[in-house]
Specification:
The complex is a heterodimer of chains A (263) and B (382). Chain A has 263 residues and is an alpha/beta fold. Chain A contains twelve helices and five strands. In chain A, strands 2-1-3-4-5 form a five-stranded parallel β-sheet. In chain A, helix 3 links the parallel strand 3 and strand 4. Chain A is globular, with a radius of gyration of 20 Å. Chain B has two domains: 222 residues, no CATH class; 99 residues, no CATH class. Chain B is built from 13 helices and 15 strands. In chain B, the strands form four sheets. In chain B, strands 1-11-10-9-8-2-3 form a seven-stranded mixed β-sheet, with helices on both faces. A four-stranded antiparallel β-sheet of chain B has the order 7-6-13-12, with no helix packed on it. In chain B, strands 4-5 form a two-stranded antiparallel sheet. In chain B, a hairpin with a 2-residue loop joins strand 14 and strand 15. The radius of gyration of chain B is 22 Å and the shape is globular. Classes of the chains: A alpha/beta (263), B alpha+beta (382). Chains A and B meet through helix 2, helix 7, helix 8 and helix 10 of A and strand 5 and helix 10 of B. The complex binds iron/sulfur cluster (SF4) (4 copies). One iron/sulfur cluster binds next to helix 10 of chain B.
């Protein structure tokens, strides 16, 4: 990289929450701002500069044909491409459409369905182009984001743990809601990154950071069943922000098939 | 460590290791004042998030009066008692290790200046803590961690500093949870040593036993009575009740060789199909001591801190070495945990790594019970 590395931040189908986390990291961001040139970041500045970009941060999933073409162009213009958030990394909550009839949604929501041009699925960026690093979370953790940017600039591997939420839950002394309250919690199969905030507030983990390394979904959902949770609800639990991530998807499909088989 | 006491008069009493006195329940609050005026912060049992946890406590009112716990593999529930006992429960999700071996601590710091880098130990001035309510299995766990952290050639100063500043007030269990198996591990339920004071709770007060000069100095400031024969008998009965309630067993005969000669047993695959590799068992275990160390810097890279955090053999990345991960399957991680805890720990430290507290059984989200795993392997042994 000669001169200041050029950073681009691009948005696809998403709620902008991850970009907002980036902006919310103001203090740290100011430090980074000196070391990079922000070449494209519509959420922060309307000054747009064309590629090539040294680092691109991609928020959002691919839901239209136009998205497919745009991400290919960004990839061609970018040296190191990082996806940020559940949408970009697994398809996001909007990937619920993957299990439904999208045309039906369109015709019931829009007055003039003909104006809508969309794909039947919401998919991860990595399903379309090569991704150099995936930063998980719904939304992302701003400290992890700074860590990724810093490490890319320094040419080292980012330190973002792949262990379960449980490890952080215990490190902070939270009482396990699964054991003490019988609340279904996805923490044991979910990657850390949020510092286990939900159990601290007596709620089960929603799986915002996607599957942990080598997750054992079957054992956990068996336990949910043993604790009295109906299959339908287990499927709904798995199909949320990261429902389309391969491990969660395979498991929710397996349980759904079991249920369908019984009917 | 035993105190020389002048002969206590009552005869025909069951032998107790140390001189005992009686403190009436209305005099118990005074203990808190005495501890505070002796410069201690008190940590002990209190209710939070539907469990009895260990936290800073200020008065008798913070204790879980009238509460108990029900425990099974993968399950913990609070229940109301039909009396006002303050210590009528068994061990919960926390252990005292969080105070002696903190989950996250700064070890050293580095600062950049004109001449280069300046390194120093992180400032560390832990408070004097009084542990109130330590059970026999927990005394054994502290003994094990003492051996690990300060008993060898390399002394862990973070642990040592904290350890030197605690006062241990133990409580004899008068009941046991379904997950308790201290009798199999020879660690309880009776507190025999390793404490400054030990209490046995009766309906109207406590029998208090001091085993160190520090403990004696505290008792001397309380309002005490001679122990009556009847109180002595009730205390014996209450303590026996805990022994009688312990139903869980682990056969430890030749356990080291049993496990080490069965490293390819099919049971490891079976348990791996249930295990989530979530780390909970190691986090709640009062003897597990693994940690990882990392450097954290500010953005400018001018202030660096070396921090140590609890870590676990169930964490995939924990066995990462140059080139890859050594224990790349849940089977290998579960086997590592159990063979270390129950077998190679003996080679390493001359004791089992398990004190039979049952925490790993209750707090495993899918209720894996190590005593059952051992039994399953033993069943096939010749
Ligand atoms: S509350 Fe959830 S994240 Fe925390 S230890 Fe229990 S299962 Fe794991
Ligand atoms: S294992 Fe024994 S000493 Fe520990 S809490 Fe249970 S009965 Fe008490
Ligand atoms: S034995 Fe239980 S607590 Fe331990 S890692 Fe496996 S699932 Fe988690
Ligand atoms: S292995 Fe389990 S029963 Fe044994 S000391 Fe650790 S947590 Fe307690």
């Amino acid at each position: 990289m000669s001169g200041k590395p050029r950073l681009g931040v691009f948005k696809f189908a998403s709620c902008d929450g991850c970009q907002l986390s980036l902006l919310a990291a103001e203090d740290q961001l100011l430090g980074v701002a000196d070391t990079v040139e922000i070449a494209y970041f519509l959420e922060a500045t309307s000054r747009i500069q064309p590629g090539p970009y040294d680092i691109a941060l991609i928020e959002g999933s691919i839901t239209t044909q136009h998205d497919v073409e745009r991400i290919k162009q960004i990839r061609a213009d970018t040296h190191f491409l990082v996806t940020i958030g559940a949408c970009a990394t697994s398809g996001g909550i909007q990937a619920l459409r993957n299990w439904s009839d999208c045309d039906e949604f369109v015709s019931s929501v829009y007055a003039t369905p003909d104006y809508i041009s969309t794909l039947a699925t919401s998919t991860a960026i990595a399903d379309h182009v090569k991704v150099d690093f995936e930063l998980r979370g719904c939304p992302i953790n701003q400290y992890q984001l700074i860590e990724v940017i810093q490490s890319v600039l320094a040419g080292r591997r980012p330190r973002t743990p792949v262990h379960s939420v449980c490890l952080d839950c215990k490190r902070r002394g939270t009482v396990c809601v699964m054991v003490a309250q019988g609340t279904a919690c996805l923490g044991p199969v979910t990657q850390a990154g949020c510092n286990a905030i939900c159990p601290e507030y007596n709620r089960g983990c929603y799986g915002c950071f996607g599957p942990a390394a080598q997750p054992n979904l079957v054992s956990l959902t068996d336990q949910f069943s043993a604790n009295g949770m109906p299959r339908e609800q287990i499927v709904n639990n798995l199909r949320s922000f990261n429902g389309n991530s391969p491990e969660f998807r395979v498991e929710s499909d397996r349980i759904q098939a079991e249920q369908d088989g019984e009917q | 460590m035993t105190l020389k006491e002048e002969n206590h008069s009552e005869e025909n009493l069951p032998a107790t290791p140390h001189h005992e006195v009686f403190v009436a329940i209305d005099g118990f609050a005074l203990l808190f004042d005495v501890l505070k005026s002796s410069g201690f912060q008190i940590v002990g049992p209190t209710i939070d998030q539907d469990a009895i946890v260990y936290d800073q406590i200020d008065s008798v009112d913070d204790l879980p009066k009238g509460w108990t716990d029900v425990q099974k593999p993968g399950l913990y529930r609070l229940n109301q008692r039909n009396d006002d006992k303050l210590f009528g429960y068994n061990v919960g999700p926390h252990s005292w290790k969080k105070y002696l071996f903190p989950p996250n601590v700064a070890l050293s710091i580095g600062k950049k200046n004109e001449d280069g880098w300046e390194f120093q130990e992180a400032p560390d001035d832990p408070p004097k803590l009084a542990f109130l309510g330590v059970r026999a299995c927990e005394l054994a766990a502290i003994r094990i961690q003492d051996r690990v952290f300060v008993g060898g050639d390399y002394v862990d100063s973070t642990y040592q500093k904290r350890r030197q500043r605690i006062l241990i007030i133990a409580v004899n269990c008068t009941q046991a949870a379904e997950t308790c198996f201290c009798t199999s591990m020879d660690t309880g339920p009776r507190c025999t040593d390793g404490f400054d004071l030990a209490l046995t709770e009766l309906d109207d007060g406590f029998l208090v036993e001091a085993s160190t000069p520090e403990g004696k100095a505290i008792v001397d400031q309380l309002i005490t009575l001679e122990v009556t024969r009847k109180q002595q008998q009730s205390a014996e009965l209450a303590r026996q009740n805990a022994v009688d309630q312990i139903k869980k067993r682990m056969d430890t005969t030749e356990i080291r060789d049993l496990l080490m000669s069965n490293l390819e047993h099919a049971r490891w695959d079976e348990v791996a199909s249930r295990c989530l590799s979530c780390t909970n068992c190691t986090m709640v275990c009062p003897t597990c001591f693994c940690s990882s160390v990392e450097e954290v810097s500010d953005l400018a890279g001018e202030n660096v801190e070396r921090r140590r955090q609890w870590d676990s053999c169930f964490n995939l990345e924990f066995s990462y070495m140059n080139g890859g991960v050594v224990r790349d399957s849940t089977r290998s991680r579960y086997r590592q945990w159990m063979t270390h805890k129950l077998a190679t720990w003996i080679d390493q430290f001359g004791t089992s790594g398990c004190v039979g507290c049952g925490r790993c059984i209750s707090w495993c989200p899918v209720g894996i019970d190590l005593t059952e795993e051992v039994a399953a392997i033993r069943k096939d042994a010749p």
